[in-house]
Amino acid sequence: MRRAELDYILTTMLGMDRQSDTMIRRRKEVSDLNFTVDRPLQVELAGELTPVACNPPLDNLTPYQTEMIALNLINGNPRLTEDLIRTGSCDASYSVGDLVRFRVNIFTQRGKFSIVLRKLNTEIPTLAQLKLPEIFKKLALEKTGLVLVTGATGSGKTTTLAAVLHEINTSKAIHIITLEDPVEFVHTHKKSTFNQREMGSDFSTFAAGLRAALRQAPKVVLVGEMRDRETVEIGLSAAETGHLVLSTLHTIDAGQTINRILGMFEPEEQEQVRVRLADTLRWVVSQRLAPKVGGGRYALLEIMGSNLRTKETIIHGETEGKSFYEIIESNTTFGWRNFDQACLEAYEHNTITEETALLYSSKRGTVSRGIDVIKKARGEVVSSSDLKMKTESAKSSGPVFPATLKLK
After folding, report:
1. pLDDT digits 0-9 by tens, 196-225
2. Helix (H) or strand (E) holding 244
3. Which residues are CB-contacts of 184 (< 8 A; sequence separation ≥ 6)?
4. Residues with Cβ < 8 Å from 123, sequence gap 6 or more?
5. Rounded Cα–Cα distance for residues 172 and 31 (Å)
6. What would you report as the CA-atom Rg of the chain, rounded to the nearest whole angstrom?
7. Alpha-carbon distance 290 to 352, whole Å?
């Protein structure tokens, strides 16, 4: 297989070979391209894998075909080849001319190659285009400290950080360094000056790149991911010495984010790390992409800032009545929100369904009660199935007393 053939397959999967409305719409909605042995060419549309027809047809990929695609994507790069042999997977980037760029992961399973390509957006979104809350402008105004955007793979963390950097780029004349794996959004120089470095070609590890960045006089440093203790430690040092450090973690909410960072250190070190983290952490934004009513996906956001209560809880740990969930809930007037509040807001605006709101919530009972309140305000009938179940359960276990009867 030659590169031209691979490019043809990739553009066909994206729907770029024909310019009908359907093809253009598919191109915009495709997020991932999937190559797996014994499966057809597949693209991910709105969270679901969809087969793609190709000419000549590739009904079920063979081990030889996926290997040829993998070798073309690696293109003889010694580092990628070594990573693939040594660890069983490698990360790379790939471009089809000026049309589209991909983040590539090649891995082995049962002795065969599989490949997933994530389509990278070439247009840098703004906070307004992403419809992010106004509080995100406060993130861009921070001068020092640590800002973390967390969530599962593919939840839009990089896109959110790109929008924050774009906001900084249009408002501040400063030096910004990004350390990425790979570079996804290419920022143009506006007010700020950007230096974007890619792992593998420009630096070896995030820790090494971050250590070098501290000698390159940046005001803002973007670290693609806090993967290990060394990177976290250097990131904390950078935040303590007057830099604004933006990064990501694969955690599901603010509480787990704090615990994940602390878990990277030995028990005897955690007390000191808690104090450092309390002093430097400015914001934690967690994201979950939920299916929208009518198609597409919607970003549910949990937002936690820094105040005396969050600092105290980071230092001493969560206790009953002093959890991060409750701290966020009590600061909604300042723009903070937890996932349950985000789910209820999205449901109230008919952005997501009741089932989706319950599925993506943190505390299902809380969201269920909130949905009942919204339904009552709309004049809708509230389901009594839960009440019936409770009544039947009570009957089976003994007599049911009136609510007003007090037993002594």
Report:
1. 999 888 998 999 999 999 999 999 999 999
2. strand 244-249
3. 101, 103, 120, 121, 158, 162
4. none
5. 32
6. 24
7. 8
